[in-house]
Amino acid sequence: MKLKHKLRSDPKAKENLILRLKKIEGQVRGVQAMIDREEYCDNVLNQLSSVRSALDGVSKILLKSHIQTCVVERFKENDSKILDEFMTTMDRILK
Hints:
Layout: H1 11-36, H2 41-76, H3 81-93
Helix pairs in contact: 1-2, 2-3
């Protein structure tokens, strides 16, 4: 059975992540509207690039928090699975 771990972050950091994701959600809706209006492909591609960049920013914030909290704590607890789990996650992120 796989243990379920929770996000460990202070309330301000969590609020920041949620705010960023809501903005990204708005950006994605904007891209949908652009496609619906049949706007110029280059403009749509530029907006998609902005969405990707914003998602990367969220990932970086969450990755930093994950390393500083979850990974360090589980490493200190001699949880031998944390390094394999972390490396699998990094492989996915860096694709």
